[in-house]
Amino acid sequence: MPIAMIVHGGAWDIPDEQVEAHIHGCRVALEAGLRILRAGGTALEACEAAVRLMEDDPIFDAGTGSVLTNAGTVELDAALMDGRSLRYGAVANLKRIRNPISLARHVLEGPATFIGGEGAEHFAASCGMPFCDNAELIVEREVALWQAWKTSRRQDEESTLVAQPDPAAVHGHDTVGAIALDKSGNLVAANSTGGTPFKLPGRIGDTPMVGCGLYADATIGGAVCTGWGEGIVRVALARRAIEQLERGVPPQTAAESAMHTLARYVDGGRGGCIILTPSGQIGLAWNTRRMAYAYATEDTPLIAGV
User: Fold this and answer.
1) Quick check: 99 and 131 in contact, CB under 8 A?
2) Among the residues of the chain, which ranges form H helices?
């Protein structure tokens, strides 16, 4: 069976000065996943490795370097879906786990499908995962943005802590994701995020929700979405992309159709979508200014861009 993999580093208004770092981060993550696939490793291993690298790269809104909630903290979500078994593992509202994607894998292989908050961190402890201080996930760039946002609000502390920014006005980072096809023919989809800038504490977007932020079926294809999560959830965007593949639509057309659906049915719906089929065909589309990505198949060399 052919191998193939695609990763993304978020669909949003990536500033010019951050473009090179986003492309580099996607390339490094993809190369790590491809090494695993070429050595006969599984799509699950490849996706976890690629996403972990992006979680550790502070240029991305996942793991270290994530955006801050309106309370000035980091809260992380992640998910994995195995296309052969249709097993799914998701975690949300993590404050002390550096690599949520690895905890999501434990969930996928365990007795549950979705664990959040304190319960997820208790589960992490039972799996022997290391903990970190929330402050270790915060970088100066995001502190500066949060402080500027607080100043611009010109409200008292109580109002600030319950205010949710207009998504159309948010110019922050976004989800990272990956889809891999291994030599056995299995497809796995994965994603991880710190959410939207200045979100309400406890807010959960599309990233860890099956059928919204991701979906994988080894007989049909895998899809991972990125963008404003509230809009993506409303149209179950990942599942809509997969339904296009079920109808025989080529993956590139399916990705573009998903973006049309998001924009048509959700006011201000913006984001991106990546797709990988069991034959190794790639699709990717976005309706934001940029989306960082990298991909490679048996027939194409590594391609990366925004």
Assistant:
1) no
2) 19-38, 43-56, 100-108, 117-126, 140-153, 157-162, 229-235, 237-246, 251-265
Do 143 and 149 contact (CB within 8 A), yes or no?
A: no
Cα(221)–Cα(186) distance, rounded to whole angstroms?
A: 10
Q: Are the C-beta atoms of 160 and 153 separated by less than 8 Å? A: yes
- On whether the CB atoms of residues 176 and 11 are closer than 8 A, the answer is no
User: Whose CA is closest to 76, among 136, 27, 28?
Assistant: 136
Contact between 199 and 69 under an 8 Å Cβ cutoff? The reply is: yes
Q: What is the pTM of this model?
A: 0.94
Paired with 215 in beta bridges are 223
pLDDT per residue as tens digits for the range 279-297 = 999 999 999 999 999 999 9
Which span out of 76-80, 160-164, 266-270 was modeled with the highest average pLDDT?
Answer: 76-80
CB 23 within 8 A of CB 306: yes
Torsion, Cα 168 223 32 86, to 10 degrees, reads: 130
Compute the CA torsion angle 8, 14, 19, 24 (nearest 10 deg): -30
DSSP string, 50-96: HHHHHHHSTTSSSSTTPPP-TTS---EEEEEEETTT--EEEEEEESS
Length of the chain: 306
Instruction: Give residue 269's identity as a one-letter amino acid code.
Output: G
**So which residues are the catalytic ones?**
175
